[in-house]
Structures are given as structure tokens and as C-alpha cells.
Design a protein that fits this description.
The protein is α/β, with parallel strands linked by helices and 378 residues long. It has 16 helices and 10 strands. Helix 5 (109-151) crosses helix 6 (153-172).
Length: 378
């Protein structure tokens, strides 16, 4: 049997709450609170479908309470009960976008239940739309990263390291919405799919590039940003990717989260280059970074890398055949075909499509085996 929708009723008069509970208990799971402050505490620990509040209450009126409830539980539908004398305040609350409905007291039982049911349906629609959007978002990101891993494995490999560094910096500096920074890092090199094959082979290695090749490489952020900007809710992430190699002046012109993301991407990308070029570790590379980026905003992120720990410490290295590979294993070496072509790069986490790619190559031009992989310690 499906559970009943959960309802929170807030009123400073206990007899009114008792009456609402008697009317609604057969249709809904009812919780009550005798003040806005008590109601907010209940919201913090419960997932209410509909929140109903009286307008005229001491200390915090219904409109103020429901406005604060919106910040805590944005998906909950909010209904305001009001008397005729509070009409102007109720209309203002609705116009401010905080209230789904306001109902005049006394409200007939049938009308109250009907409006709550409409609020329940609205809540269900919001949740369904959010779930669909999140699935679309995750699917779009998955497709882009898998395309990058197959078309430009070296670029994808670098992005996995960049993502680890950015994730650590964002967490260590208590950034909000870390998922946005992690996605920006994971997609930071997706623009590399526009590079010609001959440039892709050496673009993310230590091989020196010509002036023309370096100019072509500068197109990666913009190309990646254009791809990402077509996905819903990723506008800020696209701006981070576009600005990842910006100058100090460029970054200062950006707003809070976008600027923080662009700075972390710039630092992580340079850190990765230093480690790759000098075959060194994170702490040693950070000493070089401080000479390159000296602004206080950058130093906060660079200093946070002092506590970075590589995933290597949590993995066991083993040599395996392609037939023994499983999802979640991390490549500890580049994977080559028998004729010298690179298939996947060190650092990539194996997924079903990547394992299938290796199997297909092994049946064709052949793969050099065994392959060293990292397996997470239990």
C-alpha cells in the first residue's frame, strides 16, 4: 500500500491544529507545529509534500514562515490560510512567488482537501521533472566523457587527473555545489575532439608543439564550452570551461562560483602539466605553482592541495588479461595495440564501453597484454 502524502500544518492556535488533523488524517500523514520556528525545525528533518500555514501568527507570520520554508524545502507545495483582513499581505505573498495557493478562513473541508490534493499533484510533477532532468543531465555527461575517452584517450586521461585535483580543492575550501566543479573538470578537455588526429597524438604528452599547434590547442576551451552549453543547467560549467586558461584580469571579471571554478581548472591543468613534464608529485609541483599564480585567490586553492592524497594509496596493482577486466578497475599504464597505437590511457577508470573497446581491438589489431590495473582495496 502506498504511503499517504505528508502534510505540515502550522498555526499558533492548538484547537485549530486539532481540527485540521481531524479533517485531514484519513487523506494525509499530518504533522503540526504551533509556530513558524517549530515548523522550520520539522522541515529540516522531514520531507513534506505540502506545507500549510495560518497567516496571522506572533513573531513570524505565515508569509514569512513559508518564504523560509521555500529555502529549506523548495519542492514542497506551500498553502497560506488567511482571514479577509490579511488579504493584501496574502496577495503580496502569492505575487512574490512563495505561495501556491491562499485560502480564506473559514475554508470548507471539501475545498481544503481539494486544494491540498492539487498541491500534492504539483509536488509530484516537480519531482518527476527534476528526476527526468537529472537523468538527462547524467546521460549527456556520460555520453560526452565516453566519446572523449574513445576519440581522444590522452585528453580524457588528463581530465581524470584534473577532476581529482579540482574535487580536492573544492572540498578543502568548502565550496558549495561541488558537483558543478567536478563536471567542469571532467569535461574541461572535451573540446579536444575537434583536434586533427596527428595533433591529438602528442597534444597531451611532453612532446614539444609548434607555434601553429599551440595556437590550435587554444581552441579547446571554447569548443568544449559550446558543446557543454547545449546541455540544460550547465551554463555556469560552460563558462568555467571557456575561462580555464584566462588571465588574472579575465578571471576577475567573472562572478563568484564561475570564477572559483575557472581558477581551480587553471590551477589543476597547470599542476597536471608540471607533474607530467617533470615526473614529480603534487606537493613538489605546488611549489612551482606558487611562482606562476601569486594572487591571494589562487593561493587559497594551491595551499589546499597540501592535503591531497593520490588514489594510488587506496589501490592494489595487478597485471590482468583483457578477459579478466572489470568495471571500476583503474588503468595503471597506457594500453597499446600491437602495432603501437594507443587505445586507452593510464588513469582511466574502466567502464563497460571501454572494456568492450579493448575487446574489439584485441580481436582486430591486437592488444599488448597483460595490462596493469589498480584495484580498490576492500
Amino acid at each position: 500500500m502506498d504511503s499517504l502524502p505528508s502534510i505540515l500544518c502550522v498555526d499558533d492556535e492548538k484547537n485549530v491544529l486539532d481540527g485540521l488533523s481531524r479533517i485531514l488524517f484519513e487523506h494525509f500523514e499530518v504533522e503540526t507545529a504551533t509556530s513558524g520556528a517549530e515548523g522550520l525545525e520539522l522541515i529540516k528533518s522531514n520531507n513534506f509534500t505540502v506545507i500549510i500555514s495560518d497567516m496571522r501568527m506572533p513573531e513570524m507570520n505565515g508569509a514569512e514562515f513559508l518564504s523560509k520554508a521555500l529555502a529549506l524545502a523548495p519542492n514542497s507545495t506551500r498553502i497560506l490560510l488567511t482571514g479577509q483582513s490579511d488579504m493584501d499581505s496574502a496577495i503580496a505573498a502569492v505575487n512574490d512567488g512563495n505561495i501556491f495557493r491562499f485560502l480564506l478562513k473559514p475554508c470548507p473541508e471539501e475545498k481544503l482537501i481539494a486544494n491540498i490534493n492539487e498541491g500534492v499533484r504539483l509536488n509530484q510533477l516537480i519531482k518527476a521533472e527534476k528526476e527526468l532532468l537529472e537523468k538527462t543531465l547524467r546521460g549527456s555527461i556520460k555520453v560526452l566523457t565516453e566519446v572523449l575517452s574513445m576519440v581522444a584517450p590522452t585528453a580524457f586521461s588528463r581530465s581524470t587527473y584534473i577532476k581529482d585535483y579540482v574535487s580536492h580543492m573544492a572540498s578543502a575550501t568548502n565550496q558549495k555545489g561541488i558537483w558543478e566543479f567536478e563536471i567542469a573538470a571532467m569535461l574541461s578537455q572535451v573540446g579536444a575532439i575537434i583536434l586533427p588526429p596527428e595533433l591529438l597524438k602528442k597534444a597531451f604528452s611532453t612532446v614539444p608543439l609548434s607555434e601553429d599547434e599551440r595556437e590550435t590547442m587554444k581552441s579547446i576551451p571554447m569548443a568544449g564550452a559550446k558543446l557543454v552549453d547545449t546541455i540544460p543547467r550547465l551554463g555556469n560549467i560552460a563558462l568555467m570551461i571557456e575561462s580555464q586558461f584566462g588571465t588574472d584580469r579575465d578571471l576577475e571579471s567573472l562572478t563568484g562560483k564561475v570564477q572559483a571554478g575557472a581558477r581551480m581548472l587553471r590551477i589543476a591543468s597547470m599542476l597536471d602539466k608540471i607533474i607530467l613534464r617533470e615526473n614529480t608529485e603534487v606537493l613538489e609541483a605546488c611549489a612551482v605553482l606558487t611562482d606562476i599564480y601569486s594572487s591571494p585567490n589562487d593561493r587559497v586553492f594551491i595551499d589546499s592541495l597540501a592535503t591531497y592524497q593520490s588514489k594510488k594509496s587506496n589501490t592494489i596493482i595487478r597485471d590482468v588479461a583483457i578477459g579478466d577486466m572489470k568495471k571500476g578497475m583503474i588503468l595503471a599504464q597506457d594500453v597499446f595495440t600491437k602495432n603501437g597505437g594507443i587505445v586507452l590511457c593510464k588513469g582511466q577508470t574502466l567502464t563497460s564501453p571501454l572494456i568492450n573497446r579493448l575487446i574489439n581491438f584485441s580481436k582486430g589489431s591486437g592488444i599488448v597484454e597483460p595490462i596493469s590495473v589498480g584495484i580498490k582495496k576492500k
